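Our consortium's second objective concerns turning raw sequence data into structural hypotheses that experimental partners can test. To show how far this objective has progressed, the report includes one record in full. It was chosen at random from the queue rather than selected for favorable results. The single chain below, 257 residues long, was entered without modification.
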Amino acid sequence: MRRNRRGGGSGLEFGGSGEDSFVAVVVTKLTGALLFILLLTMVIMALLPKAIDSAARPQDGGPAEVARRPLKILTPESLPEAIAGRPYTVALAADGGQGPLHWSLDGALPEGLSFDPDSGLVKGTPSKGTPQPVDLAVRVSDGEKIDAGSLRLVVYQSDAPLTTPAWWKPGIPPVPWRAWLDQGVGFLIVWLVHLVGMSTLANFERQAEAGGVAIEGGEGSLSLAPRRFAVYRLLVRLSTMSATFALAAWLWTSRPH
């Protein structure tokens, strides 16, 4: 609060900026708008049940009961085709009526399929195909009215074996391994592996000699390194020879006579 001396007079003046006054005005207007919306909502909620009652009440001279749509089966006569060995599900549909529907199906379903009269579901896994379409008679009732119709179901027998599709199918053509082995590619691969193993052992041996690595510890242990690597080389040679003889024996025994 401060004293105002402008205009030759004096008086008390409450301090405050123009921005604070603007905020106060905005808050006041928003509060009024929210109160108006709340009041309007309460009025609508109070009048809504009366409007519904007046709409549902029959007019003067009108029928006492609202007309209902007739009960009718919507499922087409030809059901979707099934494939033997694969799961199958189809739901029968109807329109109109009042209350829960109850279905009935006359006729022998293909083996593996079953029918639920409460839900109208035909489901299961057919075990074999049908030589000709299966004719079925269907009825639906809501407790007061009944509608009837006919259905036709075909089960196909798959010629190809049923397999689960793989999520990854590489586009690599098949490799003629037997033809390659007959041409000596197997022996080439075995000897390439042998050369790689011998070269790796030679590199390890040179590193051990250059770094002075002691294999067993103590003096004179470096003299054991050549012997140890000689044993490794012997094992690689024996493995290569065994693989070579095994491959040759397999090619000889499996060739057509």
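The partners drew two points from this record. Residues 11-16, 60-66 have pLDDT under 50 and may be disordered. The two ends are 120 Å apart (CA to CA). Both points have been shared with the crystallography group to help prioritize constructs.
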